[in-house]
Amino acid sequence: MSLSEKSLQCSDCAKTFPFTVEEQEVFASKGFTNHPKRCPSCRQERKTRQLASGTYRSVQPGYRLERKMFPVTCTQCGKSTQVPFEPKDGRPVYCRDCYNAKVSR
Q1: How is the chain classified by DSSP, letter by letter?
Q2: Per-residue pLDDT tens digits of the chain, which is 105 residues long
Q3: pTM of the prediction?
């Protein structure tokens, strides 16, 4: 199958942008089967917003975004630990061991 440049319309800004043969080859090598929905500038803007909010997940293997951790004391055993969410007042928070024991009952 031979590839040829395609014109696509951005779902964000509605501008037409080229989907080049080189980009199509990169998409195919990553196993992507759909065309991009956004133009390069809207893709970059979206990625920047997601990086700022901490929700960006790269498709690059081995890349991991650092997660903000919150120090807490386990409600059950009193051990100091960290959790990846901000605890709310009045809600129990468990260390990994106590949580796993509670879930596996």
Answers
A1: -----EEEE-TTT--EEEE-HHHHHHHHHTT--SPPSS-HHHHHHHHHHHHHHT----SSTT--PPPP-EEEE-TTT--EEEESSPPPTTS----HHHHHHHHT-
A2: 578 999 999 999 999 999 999 999 998 888 888 999 999 999 999 988 888 776 666 555 555 666 788 999 999 999 999 988 899 888 999 999 999 998 887
A3: 0.48
φ, ψ of residue 30 to 5 degrees: the values are: -90, 0
Nearest one of 59, 14, 64 to 39, comparing CA atoms: 14
Backbone angles phi, psi at 62, to 5 degrees: 85, -5
